[in-house]
Structure formats: C-alpha cells, structure tokens
Design a protein that fits this description.
single chain; 440 residues; alpha+beta; Thrombin, subunit H; Pdz3 Domain; 3 domains; 8-stranded mixed sheet; 8 helices
Length: 440
C-alpha cells in the first residue's frame, strides 16, 4: 500500500505527493504529484505530473517559497516541472476525454464542456425507415432481485465512445433490438466524427448514426451488419422497455452505466418524483427524479425498474454551487413513456414529428376528465366539445387522468382523427376531431 504525504500549501494551491513503498523498505522515486489550483471559486484545474526518471523531486510547495531565492538545482527542477506542465496542457487541449452527465449548478445549467455549442454529427450514417421500432410494454412481470436485474440488463448496456473535434466523448447506451439499434443521449454523440460501443464482455464495435433530436436529448445508433457478422450468434442482447407511467414515488429503480469510465456499474435507489420539470441546457424537460447515483459517464444509460424493464434514459444530475461538492441523490431520467413516440419518429423519418393540438383544458374529476375550457378555432371547438363536458374515453380507452389523454395524443399525428366519448348533462355522445394543427 502506498504512503501519502501532504506538503504545506501555497496560496490557492494544494500539492499531494504519493510514493509507493518498495519491498524491504524505502520509497519508489517514480512518484506522482497531483496539483489542484483554484484561482477563483468557479473553477478547479487538475494537473497530473510524473517526475523525470532517475531524478529526485521536492514538493512544489517547498520549491516556491515567497520572498526567497531558488537554488540552481531546485531552479532546474522547477523548469522541468513547468515544461512537463506545458506539454500536458498541450496534450489536454489536443484531445480530452469528456464523460457525460449534464449537471446543474445553483439554479443555472452547468453542462460539461461538450454541451455548450451545437456541433454537426459526422459519424457514418445509417438509413432511416428500415422497419425498426421501439415498443414500451405495459405488462410488468414479477419483481426481481438486484442481482437478477443486473444479469438481465447489463449485457444490453454499452459504453459509447465518440471521437469529436474536442477529444473523446464517453457515455452509455442501451440496446433495444437484437439487430443492434442503440439508444443514448444526443449530447453524448454531439460533434461526433467516429463512434464505437463496448459490450459488457469488453468487445468493441464501430457503430453508425441513425438520427437524433437535440430538444429531447435522444439519439439512435446502429451496429452495422458487418460488425454483427463477426459475432458468434450474430445477434445482440437487448433490453425490454416498460411503462414509466406505472411508476409511483418510492418504487425501487436501478441504473447501469460507465461512471468515470467504470463500465458495468450498478447503482440503486428509488423514484423520488414523477413529472419533474427541470431546465437542461436552457430548455425545460419533464423528467423522472431518482436518488440512484448518476455520475459522469452515466448519460444515455438505462434507469431500470425492479421488474427488469427500462423505464427511463439517464440524462442529468444536480451539482452544488461552484461545482465544489457533488449533491448526491438528485438524478434525472427521460421517462420511457415519452421515448416510444420520439424514438420511432427518429427511426421512421429521422426527426421528431410534432404532436397534434386538441385545443382543450382538462382536469381529472368525476367520471372522467372535466373539460374546463375549449380554445377558439381548434379541432375540439370544431367538433362540438364544450366546457363542462366530461371525456370518459379517447380512441376507445377510458380516461381517468390527464396522462391518459396525453398518452393517446402521443400516438397521433397532424392529419389524424381523434374520437372522444363525452358525457354531457347525463347523456353520452361521441365526437370526432380532425387534428390539423400542431402543438406549439
């Protein structure tokens, strides 16, 4: 076990020296010095330096004393240190490893360094409209142990590594079809030029970019047939997606991903909140909140129910003010209830199609959804829906909550028709809405 010594700090600097103990006593001169400088409360810079082989090295705090000259021998050591530091900074600027989880600081978005600007994705593409699709199952199955969840889902989780103009972007993805379609976050592949995924076995494959949507922060990748042909079974394990709308606060959930590049890491927690409106990268997203630990590298990975089903795609976490200390237990995931529509639009058209506007305001009350008002000039008004009506069914499905109506709307497109069953003054009637207007 190595020893750890701390040298006295300079103003704004902490120097930590690690020396590995040699067999039989003594210390290995191949120490690593880690310097953390904090010029102001908003920035932390990490610099790692490895000393020149064969040389001895004093801590930087002892070599840089205020008001005192530096002896020639120490001065040369300082010069070597500055040279190594300059080289390291140059290499860091040339190629960085960016682990992804979007974070928020002090009520404002504080994204990782690849999330500030929109960059074109030039990863080799895969065509859309190939008959692929993602389905969300409403059947839940029996609860599983944590070990069973991990055995079932981990083979379908991949580490995503994208070469960008700024370095290497690292996140997580989940396979949702045996022929190699993978779902991840858009910000993981943003600016990507080349991308590969690594399975839980350690086997890596080049992947193609199908489509993505920055607003929903979702992207679809595809393992090309040539890569699949090199695998023994020529198919991939894939995850089953469950309905996030069946979750309640307190339900157990799990996350699998590659935090800090530690592939196949399982964390657990509960659902902390449903339909939490969170601002991410300047836009509002309705997300699941969980206290399952999410860290850099978890972005794009699955949030999993105790039934072994993917109920969300992890996208963000909260961090404390000025990024000094992490606030644990505040993670967020895109609910699976929203994924089906978005992902299938990406697979079919390469972009997300707008949902149709109905033109009513409702609230759960009485025998169904109470219509509190109807917007003028909308499909609802044209079909004869009135304030005071109760919607008891939509497209034949019973309505009990606002989410029931939203779920039906997510299956429809501009140009479709929506059939509503109404209860008005004790009389049941049916109306058909022609949905010609998109939601703003």
């Amino acid at each position: 076990m190595g020893e750890r010594e701390k040298a006295g700090p300079l103003p704004g600097e902490i120097v930590e020296v690690y020396r590995a103990a040699l067999p039989g006593g003594g210390r290995d001169p191949r120490e690593v010095v880690a310097c953390y400088r904090q010029p102001d409360p908003r920035e932390v810079v990490e610099v790692y330096r490895r000393p020149v082989p064969g040389g001895t090295r004093k801590s930087a705090a002892r070599n840089r004393q205020r008001g005192r000259g530096v002896p020639p021998g120490r001065r040369s050591g300082l010069y070597r240190f500055l040279l190594c530091l300059a080289v390291l900074i140059g290499l860091t600027a040339a190629g960085r490893i960016v682990d992804h989880v979007l974070v928020r600081t002090g009520g404002r978005p504080q994204e990782d360094s690849a999330a500030h600007t929109t960059a074109e994705i030039t990863i080799p593409s895969w065509p859309v409209d190939q008959g692929a699709g993602l389905s969300v199952s409403r059947a839940q199955g029996e609860p599983l142990s944590a070990q069973e969840v991990y055995r079932r889902l981990n083979p379908a989780v991949v580490t995503v590594q994208c070469l960008t103009g700024e370095g290497v972007s690292i996140g997580t993805g989940v396979i949702f079809s045996e022929d190699g379609y993978i779902l991840t976050n858009h910000h993981v592949v943003r600016g990507g030029r080349q991308c590969q995924v690594t399975l839980d076995s350690g086997y890596s494959m080049e992947v193609c970019f199908v489509a993505g949507d920055e607003d929903s922060d979702l992207a679809v990748l595809k393992v090309p047939p040539g890569e699949l042909m090199q695998m023994p079974l020529r198919t991939l394990p894939y995850a089953v997606f469950g309905d996030s709308e069946q979750l309640v606060v307190g339900d157990p959930v799990y996350a699998i991903g590659a935090p800090r590049r530690l592939r196949g890491t399982l964390t657990n927690g509960i659902v902390s909140a449903i339909d939490r409106d969170v601002e991410v990268e300047g836009r509002s997203m309705t997300l699941l909140q969980t206290n399952a630990a999410l860290n850099s590298g978890n972005s794009g990975g699955p949030l999993i129910s105790e039934r072994g089903q993917v109920v969300g795609i992890n996208v963000a976490k909260y961090m404390s003010d000025w990024n000094r200390d992490s606030v644990e237990g505040l993670g967020f995931a895109i609910p699976s209830a929203y994924l089906e529509r978005i992902v299938n639009d990406l697979l079919k058209w390469g972009e997300v199609q707008p949902e149709p506007r109905i033109g009513i305001w409702v609230q759960a009350e009485g025998p169904g959804l109470f219509v509190s008002s109807v917007d003028a000039g909308t499909a609802a008004e044209a079909a004869g829906v009135r304030a005071g009506d109760y919607i008891i069914a939509a497209q034949g499905e019973e309505m009990h909550t606002n989410q029931d109506l939203f779920r039906v709307r997510r299956t429809l497109y501009v140009g479709d028709e929506l059939t509503l069953t109404l209860l008005r003054e004790g009389e049941t009637l049916e109306v058909t809405l022609e949905l010609e207007e998109a939601v703003d």
